[in-house]
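pipeline/complex-builder :: batch 7 item 3
reading input block
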Amino acid sequence: MNDDEILSERKHEILLNAVEEYIQCASPITSSNVRSKGFTDLSTATLRNELNALEAMGYLRQLHTSSGRVPTAKGYRYYVNAIMCDVPLEKSILDEIHAIFENRAVYLDDVVNEIADVVSKATNYPTVVMLKGFEKLQIKNVKIIPLMTGQALILIETNSGIINNLMPIKPNIPNQTYVDASNFLTSTFENKTVADMIKNIEGYRVQMGQELVEFKGIFDTMIQSLKSLSDTIAQKGGVTARGELRLLNSPEYQDLEKAKKVIDVLTNPSEIEQIFEDDMDTDSEVSFKIGSEIPVVDLQDCAIARADYQVDGESIASIGIIGPQRMDYAKIASALKFVVGEFENLKQLDNAKEGDGDNEQK
Amino acid sequence: MNDDEILSERKHEILLNAVEEYIQCASPITSSNVRSKGFTDLSTATLRNELNALEAMGYLRQLHTSSGRVPTAKGYRYYVNAIMCDVPLEKSILDEIHAIFENRAVYLDDVVNEIADVVSKATNYPTVVMLKGFEKLQIKNVKIIPLMTGQALILIETNSGIINNLMPIKPNIPNQTYVDASNFLTSTFENKTVADMIKNIEGYRVQMGQELVEFKGIFDTMIQSLKSLSDTIAQKGGVTARGELRLLNSPEYQDLEKAKKVIDVLTNPSEIEQIFEDDMDTDSEVSFKIGSEIPVVDLQDCAIARADYQVDGESIASIGIIGPQRMDYAKIASALKFVVGEFENLKQLDNAKEGDGDNEQK
DNA sequence: GTTAGCACTCTCTCGTGTTGACTGCTAAAA
DNA sequence: TTTTAGCAGTCAACACGAGAGAGTGCTAAC
């Protein structure tokens, strides 16, 4: 980003040390502070000069004369760019994340919730997950299951979880019709995307042979139902925030008014969407937005870590962690990488497994 | 409860007025305060005497000499017992609650979450819902649906929502077997409870004829899976808390430390269970626990409103609203009554509908 | 039983003074 | 040229005390 200036080796070290220290302790960095953390061969006066210079360059700032210094957004940015090495996560958290992916034959929205839960727990910050492109998931199996309430359950098994939605149905349609319709959809759209199915099913209706005509009514309502699900998700439904309360653990949010402002944003789906508005820089797995880089007014003194789960270059889901600018960037980056990694494993697993099951309904 | 003392008509009126006023304004009640709210024909000195007397009886207390008075737990209790009339809810909230019950052909745990969400929104207080006896729900239909992941979905349609759970399955079992097993279970246990099914299915296994023997493996894992679901729910899984953050709206919880203590309890399933430990007084739809009546240490200056959804005298789910002792008891009572009422409607609807659908799988 | 009047109490707020932690700067030393 | 010691200056944080204001309890009169 702003790599025009090149810091001397010593300034570099001092800055990284200072930011790291501040992330841990949350209290302004003083010259003697820096000295005791690895610069015992220099006097505090010298370090004061260096800190002063770093301040002049915009990496640090003082809250008031005679106070220690805190990193600016530019300072954090420098730190993040410099330190992107992994930090080991607690094993129990890794296991927990892993377990979610193990038992993943649950509904996609549940998966999203659980991921948000676990990531929030792992990082101790509020976490939002946004599902944006479920239509791009690969269909593995489709089932339409009539219920007793005058509705039917649409179950679409995909490579990343089950999509499920309700549709109204007409009475007096024999069950076999639903089974046949399910089998038709499965065999026709297996390994295609949900979007393909929504788009192309109309074409199939036009050229339907005698045996397909009876599905017409079912397909119509089903497509309608999937479209509305897609719309709902596109509008706001695909957003979940979890662990909002963890914000209160940060000393910078002991002030309830400040905390409420952020929490209000997290509770408002359309504002969360803004966070994920633009595409991610595809060259890194995890990206950070710090301070004014965030396109939401009330989050100007926050930082957001983000990772996307991508299929064929398009992101299906985005995970975001919101915290103060003084957040544990290293730990968060490693947690996010791990989650995205689990997603990737999943995909490969599915490709490997492909075609070994005979699950067609009879 | 403590109805030993009988208050004079005037004291009664003053007390109710005072509590109501305090619930609205959250600032200690003064003598002139009471005077302006309907006692203009009395002097503040007289009212001071009355307030003094009410304090001596334990209904009110002063935070310090020369401050106004606030209700004690005993004062709130008196108020709650006296005023149990309904307060109209906002129509939009009624509609929202109603909508949940309309579209209820969703999974039971989702219903629980949504109810907690809506009640919390309606009352503006944190709300917990505890599902305790799903085994007592009436079975309407059972479906076992094999998935591609080596698992099968158990879908049990009941009179109050769908229970769904996963079970592992063995490969190479034809789909028809699952269909047959589903049909067998549905026809055998329709209108029985889930508990009945779990208990009696073993008996059926013993006297299984030739045609049932093939289901043996399926039933075994299914019962195991349902039992573990039942255990999970019994232990802690059936508890959801929603809207914890709304606690921060109350002036008594502006102090973060205080708020965190309560929120910690709400985040801890086993502590929530304690709240619902003892059975409800069956004579009223809504019951309140105030202050020391609550069996949880950290909630001693809270109040909890509770309603149960009962089937055949046994409660299936409990809803609890947690707030400061100064909560809007009337509004909360009416919200809870409405929710429970919707549950009851549901039951009647189901009984009326019984037997009109032909949803057996072919 | 009710009321006016008055003294009393306690919180809340605001201003003041003090302390302690850092810094910036300057001048000498390396 | 870089580093360092020393010192004056700055500011947050805390404690203290005075004054105002709100509300009470009590007493004596109605």
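note: Chain B has three domains: 3-83, 91-132+239-357, 135-236.
queue -> next item
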